[in-house]
Specification:
heterodimer; A: 782 residues; six-stranded mixed beta barrel; 23 helices; 20 strands; elongated; B: 266 residues; alpha/beta; six-stranded mixed sheet
Chain lengths: 782, 266
């Protein structure tokens, strides 16, 4: 007696349908696996990243708020600690300068502590070496993304007294801090004494505070500010950490990628529909036989649904396995990028359940319609079915064929074969078209970001941006103007403030600015004689639900104010953080209680705008301002653009990766279609072979079919792709960054190449298989 | 041990009516271009436990009649009454269920499921046809018995692809017997076999009448048709000749037919 499977002969047949057609099973299982992989990886990364961010923030002991001050003596610490609700007060010195790398200098923040063993806020881990002494520095590990170096090497920084060489004695890791490559900004740690020795800065200029009750942050910050001012400490800025930008950005990116993963699953469902339609077409006589033997439609459907269920289970299992691996790798990459501790990597039950539910239910749901339609056939129709129809004779088609006589018959055969199975062809075209649209959407997003960046640089029309410690404006302006190639200097500063509906970046500009080129959307610009007014950007207006004429109440850690909105401007700055408000630099300084004669930020315009000339100007500015003790942080417009592009490049890379997954499903769909086409048309191949067709000729028939489908898909993507890309860019705008929709026509050519590449890859194996078919095999097969 | 009844045959024998009555059956296929008459107003009756032949050349409409008898096809007009039950009133699913229980079909090209073994093909018929009143655990035994009845039990675990044409047709006969239907309908059962194998397969079918089955078969071979106990001969959709297929003749003959109302499973 043979081995008997539970569930009966119908179950056995369903299993045999899956196991006997191995190639088709592999393709379908792969298709499902790719969709489930994307969803699983994204869900795992998304949930684990959120946990890592909060885990890392807890371990790094983030401050509840901070002050930047001119100088504060360590003896003031007990007085600050005595303020009610204060848990911990920590002083440090932050020195921002330039690090001379082998290419161009990069900005570096040196954080100096009087006692490393007493660091309780913004803690860092020493991953190698030892704590720094005189002339020594500990570098953040991710600084190596900017310039390769090793402990034992020397790094050179700019100081007021000229370049200083520091000996690297260790490497550090600061949890929760985005990597240097991401920020284009290095971080290092020194002892306060050693920093004072090379810079002359003897007092701390930064205060971090942790509270017992974080709900009373503003009251406590005001009390602390009063203590500082009572001791004649000049406060440059007071700020509370805003919403976690990494978390906000990653949430948005995962929302977008989740949408794309769902598109991949929809494509997978096309693959299933195609496969089931083909399965039914192949087994039409078997269905007829089963009905003749007494099988009802429901029983027949149940058998095929079991086959699809097997595909689903296998694909889901594979997809989950690969998804966990991909999710872990992706998470590790992000953890490295943003300096996060992963904690214990775990896959939540809900993530698994979602993947299982989607991986199994999507194929089953996709299979329902073709099964319902396919099993509708009566026993008689099924028994007398001859499979593929010959098609209808069309006089117009004949005339067209006469005109196209120059096309080889094998090529024409391939083109005409395209729509012999219409449902299958349409689903394959849909899959390819969606792959093309996904590519187009991601390209449009990338182009729109570049355009948005272009608009940003048009609005902020400076060649370099300089930030310093607050110093007398007249003095700094004279020094800046003395630098060769500097044509114009304007004060510029910004401050993140909180409003009822979220934070915005409040920018202060000169009333008669030449470098902030505003484009008014509503209202008007400053008259110069009115205090406490501002303009807001279009992004801020939409987010805060405010319009011209409304008042806006905002606050920083110590102060709050209510100002009137007099205009709305088009401004793409800081859209991720909620947009910008524009006020006069004097009003901004007044809000910050910064003495009126001081200034700390500047927009610089050069006479010669070439990147080389601007870079030389930046170096000269750096040298000049550093010598004056202003500790400048200079960013050229090119550096700002490059940093932005690099940061958004990560988003684009993720989007392209998902669009490649979608393309892969499209590729599998076409591969499946062509493979089935080869199997179905073995007799036709045999006839071609018997008539003397070469392997190349036979292969060309199927390659042409694939390419023809690709070209039709490209045309369809042209029609619907641009509106779809517009919708996608708007979707990105609603969850991540509002972008001006830009579409580069060259993308269409790239998309054609992309689709043709998919089609060629998908056609290769089926065409090769067709080319290898021998007439004798076909005779035996039939 | 279990018993399977042959209710329909008993019905015919008790009521004195033919098992199947075909009345004024017509079938016309219409397309835009033309109208083709496949069957034209044919009437005949099939006695219970007979070996009934439907004979005629290609295109005479014999397969269409057969398909209508099985409920696979529906008549354009006229009616088929099967043991007092009219087939036209049934839905497609109801017909499928009815077929599973009452008719075993043997096709010219065997129509075995290529991915299932001979035994599994028979088991599939039991599964689809409701198991002929047997419990699921008895199906395997029943399937082996049917294969034995068709003299192909030693091929039970082979796939159809490795069986000869004759063996495949025997498996198809075993499959047709699975649910112990009162009627076996065979469409050119020997049409795809060599003459020696055809003879053996036909002998098997013929032997089923001795077990109480009504065997209806289509053939274009006059010699095979001549072996039937009753028959009709078709030409261009019309009956040109019939023997023992007239309702009155059948009623008279019923009392002479030996009754085998039950079949035992070994």
């Amino acid at each position: 007696m043979g081995f008997s499977l539970p569930g009966g002969a119908l179950t056995r047949k369903s299993i045999a349908d899956v196991t006997r057609r191995r190639l088709r099973t592999i393709l379908v299982v792969l298709g499902i696996a790719v969709g489930v992989l994307g969803l699983t990886a994204i869900n795992i990364t998304s949930s684990s990243l959120s946990e890592s961010i909060s885990f890392s923030a807890n371990r790094a002991s983030a401050p509840d708020f901070s002050f930047n001050v001119q100088a504060v003596d360590a003896s003031l610490a007990p007085a600050l600690a005595a303020v009610p609700n204060v848990k911990t007060v920590q002083f440090d010195t932050e020195y921002i300068t330039r690090w001379h790398t082998s290419t161009t200098p990069v900005s570096i923040a040196i954080i100096a502590y009087a006692d490393f063993h007493n660091v309780k806020i913004n803690t860092f881990e020493l991953t190698s070496g030892h704590l720094p002494g005189p002339g020594e520095v500990v570098m953040e590990a991710s600084d190596r993304q900017l310039q390769n170096f090793a402990p034992g090497d020397d790094v050179t920084i700019e100081t007021a007294s000229g370049p200083q060489r520091l000996h690297v004695v260790g490497m550090a890791r600061t949890l929760g801090q985005p990597g240097a490559g991401f920020l284009s900004f290095a971080t290092a740690y020194m002892s306060a004494d050693a920093l004072g020795h090379i810079t002359g800065i003897s007092n701390a200029n930064h205060i971090d505070v942790q509270l017992r009750n974080t709900h009373q942050v503003n009251a406590t910050a005001r009390a602390l500010a009063n203590v500082l001012r009572a001791h004649h400490v000049v406060i440059f800025s007071a700020f509370t950490p805003g919403s976690n930008t990494v978390q906000t950005a990653s949430d948005a990116v995962f929302a977008i990628t989740r949408v794309l993963a769902i598109i991949a699953l929809i494509l997978t469902s096309f693959l299933i529909i195609n496969t089931v339609t083909t399965l039914i077409a192949e087994q039409i006589k078997i269905i007829g036989t089963m009905k003749a033997l007494g099988g009802t439609r429901q029983k027949v459907m149940r058998g095929y649904l079991l086959s699809v269920g097997i595909y689903g289970i296998a694909g889901t299992a594979l997809g989950i396995g690969l998804g966990i691996f991909a999710g872990y790798e992706f998470l590790s990459y992000l953890a490295n990028l943003f300096t996060l501790d992963l904690g214990a990597f775990q896959v939540t039950l809900s993530t698994l359940l979602i993947s299982i539910a989607v991986g199994i239910s999507v194929p089953l749901l996709a299979a329902l319609l073709p099964l319902w339609l396919g099993t509708r056939i009566t026993a008689r129709e099924a028994m007398t079915s001859y499979g593929m129809s010959n098609g209808k004779h069309s006089p117009s088609r004949s005339r067209l064929a006469q005109r196209m006589a120059w096309i080889p018959q094998t090529t024409r055969l391939g083109m005409r074969s395209m729509f012999r199975k219409r449902t299958r062809a349409i689903l394959t075209l849909l899959a390819l078209t969606i792959s093309g649209i996904a590519f187009l959407s991601v390209s449009a997003t990338s182009a729109s970001y570049t355009a948005g960046l272009g608009q940003l640089t048009d609005t902020y029309h400076q060649d370099a941006l300089v930030a310093t410690q607050p110093q007398p404006y007249d003095q700094l302006k004279a020094q800046i103007l003395s630098v060769p190639n500097v044509a114009r200097v304007e004060r510029f500063d910004d401050l993140f403030v909180k409003t009822q509906h979220g934070q915005i970046d409040l920018n202060g500009v000169e009333t008669d600015t030449h470098m902030y080129r505003y484009r008014l959307l509503a209202g008007r610009w400053f008259r110069g004689d009115e205090p406490n007014v501002l303009l807001i950007s279009d992004t801020a207006a939409a987010k805060l639900h405010l319009k011209v004429g409304d008042t806006m109440t905002f606050s920083n850690a110590t102060d709050s104010a209510t100002w009137t909105i007099i205009g709305e401007v088009l401004d793409h700055n800081n859209t991720l953080s909620g947009g910008v408000g524009i006020t006069t630099i004097d009003d901004l300084h007044a809000f910050e209680k910064l003495p009126a004669n001081l200034a700390s930020g500047f927009m610089i315009q050069a006479r010669n705008h070439s990147p080389q000339a601007v870079e030389r100007m930046a170096n000269a500015l750096d040298a000049t301002l550093t010598r004056s003790g202003a500790t400048p942080n200079i960013q050229t417009q090119q550096q700002i653009i490059a940093r932005n592009q690099s940061q958004f490049g990560i988003v684009t890379a993720i989007l392209y990766a998902v669009s490649v997954i979608i393309g892969l499903v499209g590729l599998l769909g076409l591969f499946n279609t062509l493979t089935i086409s080869v199997l179905e048309r073995r007799r036709e191949i045999g006839i071609l072979r018997s008539m003397g067709a070469t392997s190349r000729g036979v292969a060309r028939v199927f390659w042409t079919e694939g390419i023809s489908l690709a070209v039709v898909a490209w045309i369809a993507a042209l029609v619907v792709g641009i509106p779809a890309a517009y919708a996608f860019v708007n979707f990105i705008g609603s969850v991540l960054l509002p972008l001006p929709f830009t579409f580069a026509p060259v993308t269409l050519a790239i998309m054609l190449t992309f689709i043709l590449l998919i089609a060629t890859l998908a056609s290769f194996a089926p065409a090769l298989s067709a080319a290898r078919v021998r007439v004798s095999d076909i005779l035996r097969y039939d | 041990m279990s018993k399977m009844s042959l209710d329909q045959n008993r019905y015919a024998l008790k009521t004195g009516q033919p098992l199947i009555q075909v009345e004024h059956l017509s079938r016309v296929i219409e397309t835009r271009a033309q109208k083709t008459t496949i069957l034209h107003d044919i009437t005949f009756a099939i006695p219970a436990q007979s070996l009934f032949a439907i004979n005629g050349p290609s295109g005479s409409g014999k397969s269409t009649v057969l398909n209508m008898l099985t409920g696979i096809d529906r008549p354009g007009s006229g009616r088929i009454v099967f043991a007092g039950e009219e087939l036209r009133k049934m839905s497609e699913n109801a017909l499928a269920r009815w077929r599973g229980q009452h008719v075993g079909i043997v096709f010219q090209f065997f129509q075995l499921i290529p991915t299932l073994t001979a035994l599994e093909n028979v088991l599939l018929a039991l599964e689809l046809g409701g198991g002929g009143g047997l419990k699921r655990r008895q199906w395997r035994e029943r399937a082996m018995h049917c294969l034995a009845m068709a003299s192909v039990q030693e091929r039970a675990h082979r796939l159809p692809g490795v069986l000869s044409g004759g063996e495949q047709q025997r498996v198809a006969i075993a499959r047709a017997l699975a649910n112990d239907p009162p009627v076996i309908i065979a469409d050119e059962p020997t049409g795809n076999l060599d003459s020696h194998t055809a003879q053996q397969v036909f002998d098997t079918l013929e032997g089923l009448t001795a077990q109480g089955k009504t065997v209806i078969y289509v053939t274009h071979d006059p010699r095979l048709a001549a072996r039937a106990s009753a028959r009709i001969e078709l030409l261009d959709g019309q009956i040109i000749n019939h023997e023992g297929a007239d309702a009155d003749t059948i009623t008279d003959a019923i009392n002479r037919v030996p009754t085998v109302s039950t079949m035992e499973v070994q």
